[in-house]
Backbone:
């Protein structure tokens, strides 16, 4: 009897650990395909921070797609279909730029404090934090908007540049 229960528990565990996530991913991909989304066409835009009149709060996992001449902005929650958050008409774009905001942060490590005592505060270790912004400047009737996306961590500048170049190619 105990072996039978163990086998049942193992089968249930394997189903929920392996089979169920695969079915869920296939369902999400099918939904994306029905909506016309292809992951390869989506441009990683880091984190939406501010600047769009229809979006009041920042959100993570921001992706962009150019559809019918408009930049469509999507929030992509994990394991869910993309949610359209807003759009920018391609013919209203004035400029797409990258702003570098790399910072140097000084910090005292515990080992440094033990080795040098109070002098550790004068010998702080430099740590570079990559931070860059993709800014889409566009005109909407009487207003100019600067819709901004934030890229952080290693490779932030390269990722923001890749997004900028893709948007320029697709909105020319």
Residues:
């Amino acid at each position: 009897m105990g072996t039978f229960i163990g086998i049942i528990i193992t089968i249930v565990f394997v189903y929920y650990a392996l089979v169920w996530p695969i079915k869920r991913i296939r369902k999400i991909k099918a939904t994306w395909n029905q909506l016309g989304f292809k992951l390869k066409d989506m441009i990683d835009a880091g984190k939406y921070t501010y600047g769009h009149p229809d979006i009041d709060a920042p959100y993570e996992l921001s992706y962009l797609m150019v559809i019918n001449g408009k930049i469509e902005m999507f929030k992509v929650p994990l394991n869910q279909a993309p949610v359209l958050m807003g759009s920018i008409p391609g013919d209203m774009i004035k400029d797409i730029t990258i702003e570098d905001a790399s910072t140097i942060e000084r910090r005292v490590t515990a080992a440094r404090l033990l080795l040098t005592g109070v002098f550790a505060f004068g010998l702080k270790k430099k740590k570079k934090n990559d931070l860059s912004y993709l800014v889409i400047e566009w005109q909407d009737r009487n207003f100019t908007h600067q819709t901004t996306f934030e890229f952080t961590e290693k490779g932030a500048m390269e990722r923001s540049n890749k997004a900028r170049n893709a948007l320029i190619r697709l909105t020319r």
Observations:
- The longest helix spans residues 2-34.
- The mean pLDDT is 80.
- The two ends are 69 Å apart (CA to CA).
